[in-house]
Specification:
Residues 206-434 form the Sigma-54 factor interaction domain. This protein has 20 helices and 21 strands. It is α/β, with parallel strands linked by helices. The longest helix has 16 residues, at 383-398.
């Protein structure tokens, strides 16, 4: 039961009210005194007969103007309002005491850590939020609001740390604790970017914390504005086309068309007409067709998966690169070419050249400025930031509130081998969000084919000797490492071998700057 007592400002009036409660053996749960002249009491429900005697006695106290029941205490309402706000926030929020121990946390914290709130209470916040010394800040002479970058469940956040103070009897304030609010760094960055500038589609869209991927982006930025062809190597799903678009958007051709042709998706005769077009009257067509090379005039033409292009079409493309002009099918008049070619491949073109499946002259024409996009397995530090970005993108498309990754989900994502790379990660998260009921993505929500993290290099039914397979593995390893360690001394140091031993192996396998893309 709760009472609201309106009264005059008289010394001792609250004590007179409490004395009446004592005479009725009422256990007081709480009392609040409002500055506007009100006393609020919270005590257990009492029998109606006792209540009939209690109310007149309180009303007869000098200075009491009115007594009535109320549904809630002011402090209860404020606490419940704040609690409701905190719980509905999608970002983690902690309340800590002046020693850094947890007093309160919201659902974003408990679901992310996969722990019950009761198990978190009175534990140190530093166990969960890394990268900031909360004890030192709390023990400082005058803690002030502070923002800093922290880690929570291995994910990057910006922490707003706000001190909580209360007034003491000497008109001074004492520190009672703090509220810590975590905001996703990826989401903040994207919001600021959207607010400040339009989407350029350039390198700013490429999310990375990995040194390997950052090196690739740095190289791409340096060659983006050159007019020579670019050849981008990388496994399926690594983002080769996205890197190609970024190169185009960062070049002087950015205001001109960016067109693409998937060389492996269409038959050879269709690919030829798509590239070169045809004159009127050809194929019984009354109108001429303008090919992609003409449509992309002044801009960039992306030839996706160039290794799948037939040798006949390779020869025609080579003539375009050599002569700077081409002819539409069925036409004798040459057309000048002002196009920057960017090609991608997930295959080893050098090996295909050795096998006679790709024209050597075309390979050297295209492989002027080469880039290697690392697999997701080689840039595991990017998995969580990429996941956060995809969750925001997918949530906007699905019209739902962005979900959080649980700790078990983060661990699973970081240890899965990702044979399909970034595209596989993006698709897996879209499926999870599409079927998700709550606001937390767990390991069980990510449906992926079973895949062992360890790589199998040799088929169990292989034909050949052990020495042959070892040499094959050794050659593949050296070819993979050579672009990052192009000198024999660097490569020898990386592999723990002598300079002479590495030089001999490179010579044996024909690995050098002419045969391997740097």
């Amino acid at each position: 039961m709760r009472l609201e007592i309106s009264c005059q400002d008289r010394l001792g009036i609250a004590q007179d009210v409490l004395d009446i409660l004592v005479t009725h053996n009422i256990d007081l749960r709480g009392i609040e005194i409002d500055e506007v002249g009100k006393i609020f009491l919270n005590f257990p429900n009492i029998k109606f007969e006792d209540f009939q005697h209690l109310m007149p006695k309180i009303r007869r106290i000098p200075g009491i103007e009115d007594v009535k029941t109320t549904l809630f205490m002011p402090g209860e309402r404020e606490r419940n309002q704040l609690f409701a706000i905190v719980q509905t926030l999608p970002d983690p929020v902690f309340s800590i005491d002046n020693r850094g121990k947890l007093l309160l946390c919201n659902d974003a914290v408990t679901s992310g850590l996969e722990m019950d709130e009761n198990d978190l209470l009175l534990t140190e916040i530093g166990e969960y939020v890394k990268g900031f010394n909360f004890s030192r800040w709390l023990e400082s002479k005058n803690p002030t609001p502070h923002s800093t970058k922290v880690k929570f469940i291995q994910q990057d956040f910006v922490a707003d740390i706000l001190p909580i103070t209360v007034d003491d009897s000497d008109d001074k304030t004492v520190l009672a604790g703090a509220v810590v609010m975590l905001k996703s760094e990826v989401r903040l960055g994207q919001q600021i970017t959207v607010f400040q500038q339009h989407d350029t589609g350039s390198f700013d869209k490429l999310i990375t914390q990995s040194p390997t991927m950052q090196q690739t982006i740095d190289e791409a930025k340096r060659i983006a504005d050159l007019d020579a062809p670019i050849l981008i190597f990388g496994e399926t799903g690594t983002g080769k086309e996205m890197l190609a678009k970024a190169c185009h958007q960062s070049s002087r051709r950015a205001d001109k068309p960016f067109l693409a042709l998937n060389c492996g998706a269409i038959p050879d005769n269709v690919a030829e007409t798509e590239l070169f077009g045809y004159a009127a009257g050809t194929f019984n067509q009354t109108q001429a067709k303008v090919g992609l090379i003409e449509q992309a005039a002044g801009g960039t033409l992306l030839l996706d998966e160039i290794a799948d292009m037939s040798t006949q079409l390779q020869a025609k493309l080579l003539r375009v690169l050599e002569d700077g002009e081409f002819r539409r099918i069925g036409d004798v008049n040459p057309v000048g070419v002002d196009v920057r070619f960017i090609c991608t491949t997930c295959q080893d073109l050098g090996q295909l050249v050795e096998e006679g499946k790709f024209r050597k002259e075309l390979y050297y024409r295209l492989n002027v400025l080469g880039l290697v996009v690392p697999s997701l397995r080689e840039r595991r530090s990017d998995i969580v930031p990429l996941s956060e970005a995809f969750i925001l993108q997918h949530s906007a498309k699905l019209g739902r509130r962005p979900a959080k990754l649980s700790k078990s989900c983060v661990d699973f994502l970081q240890h899965y081998p990702w044979p399909g790379n970034v595209r596989q990660l993006q698709n897996a998260l879209f499926r999870a969000l599409s079927l998700l009921d709550g606001n937390e993505i767990t390991k069980e929500d990510i449906q992926l084919p079973s895949c062992t993290p360890s790589m199998t290099y040799v088929d169990e039914n292989f034909e050949g000797t052990l020495d042959e397979e070892v040499k094959k593995f050794e050659r593949d390893l050296l070819k993979k490492l050579y672009p990052s360690y192009p000198s024999t001394r660097q490569l020898a140091k990386k592999l723990g071998l002598s300079h002479t031993a590495i030089a001999n192996k490179l010579r044996e396998y024909g690995i050098n700057k002419a045969t391997v893309k740097l």
